[in-house]
Specification:
alpha+beta, 3 helices, SH3 type barrels, globular, 5-stranded mixed sheet, single chain, 22% helix
Length: 167
Amino acid sequence: MNETPPDSLIPYDEIVQEALRAVVGRVLGQVEDAGGALPGNHHFYITFKTGAPGVSIPDNLRERFPDEMTIVLQNKFWDLSVSDTEFTVGLSFNQIPAKLEIPFAAITAFVDPAVDFGLQFQAVGGEEDHQPHDDAENDSPDSAAAEAIAQSEDGSNVVTVDFGKKK
C-alpha cells in the first residue's frame, strides 16, 4: 500500500488564503462604510510586500522599505477606499501626506491588537511565481492539521495557514 498522499488537483492553499484576505477586505469595508471611524479601541497593523504587483507607494517609502512595510490605521488616516481586490488609504509619514494603494494579495499580516486578533498570509508573487493548479501538493496528513491553524505564543488569536508548497 502506498503511504504517499496523492497530489491535490484542488488548490486548497490558494482558496484559503483568498478567503482569509476577504476577511481583511470586509473589515476595512465596514470602516469605510462608517466614514473611516474605527469602532471602540479597534486599530489595525497591516504588513504588506512593497514590491508586490499593484502596490503603489511613494518612492521614498519604497526606498526605506524595499521588501516589507507595516502601516497602522488608528487615529490619522483618510480617504479609505476598499474594492474587491485592494484598498487605498491616505497616511502621513514625517508629516508628509501619502496615498497608498495596496492589493489584498500583497498583505502578509493583519493584526487588531485591541482584541488580540491576527492573520498571517503567504505573499502572492507575480505571474512568474504562479504555479498551475495541477502542480499543487498536500502536506503529509500528520502535519497538515497542526499547521493549518496555530495560536501564537502570547495566546492571541493568530491564524496561520501554511500548506508547505514544495519549491
